[in-house]
Amino acid sequence: MEITLAQYLIVCPLVFLSGLVDSMAGGGGLISLPAYLIAGLPTHYAMATNKLSSSMGTTLATVQYARKGYIPWKPAVCCVVCAFVGSSIGARLALMVEDRYFKMLMLVILPLTALYVSRSRSLIREREEYPLGKTIFIAMAVALPIGMYDGFYGPGTGTFLILLLTGAAHMKITQANGVAKAINLTTNITTVSVYLMSGKTVITLGLVSGAFAILGNYLGCSLFIKGGARNVKPVMVAVLAVFFVKVLWELMA
Fold first, then answer.
1. Would you tell me how many other CB atoms lie within 10 Å of the CB of residue 2?
2. CA–CA dist 142, 230 (Å, integer)
């Protein structure tokens, strides 16, 4: 595809913002994918190019969190495996079930989730940690259904992972974010490989916008490392609000 300067000017700032949001609280795809669509890319080209740029940003965030010791590798590896299994199941379900019913359910889930985030203290005041075996078991039990969700529908996967890993598995917010990034990175790399072979990826636009995604993720990681949950909570509520509007718009369209 021939890409114009105007398309770069639309996509790159929004992908930067997406990377900033995603590195802190997940849900960056709610910003980046519409950016490519607004710029006029056909849906499959937008999805493929978005995966290339977002995977570049997620790689930076994962490396940053790994260097800080935020990724507990035993739970992370187990969660990655479960998420892969779940996503494959979810992808099959997506072929059999109309997603309209799922979106209607999300209209109930999203406001309740936003209320939980705004009032919950578990993101700021860390709970007593479980023994490692129990943490891994609960984290795997979280990763499987969220992986199914990711395969079936997808938006906000990182946000839901962070919330459930802190709330159910009693992980620290830093560890939950690190595990979520490890899962996102592995699934992104797999998807990018498929899209590259399909020939739907606009390589030049993906690489340039990917550089902006890296910058956004770098800034977001820095804000997260400095402020932790204090910076995450308002961003997470904003992500859930955007997600709610997106689902409502799709149902009304």
1. 5
2. 24
Distance CA 142, CA 136 (A): 10
Q: pTM of this prediction?
A: 0.85
Residue type, 154: G
How many of the other CB atoms lie within 10 Å of CB of 138? 18
Residue 113 has a pLDDT of 87
**Structure tokens belonging to residue 231:** 């910076």
Q: What are the Cα distances from residue 141, in Å, to 85, 106, 167, 234?
A: 12, 20, 13, 27
Residue 199 backbone dihedrals phi, psi, to 5 degrees? 80, 15
Q: For residues 69 and 138, give the distance between their C-alpha atoms in angstroms, rounded to a whole number.
A: 21
10, pLDDT greater than 90: yes
**Contact criterion met (CB below 8 Å) for 49 and 201:** yes
Are the CB atoms for 156 and 236 separated by under 8 Å? no
Q: What is the mean pLDDT of residues 202-224?
A: 96
Q: What distance in Å separates the CA atoms of residue 203 and residue 119, rounded to the nearest whole number?
A: 43
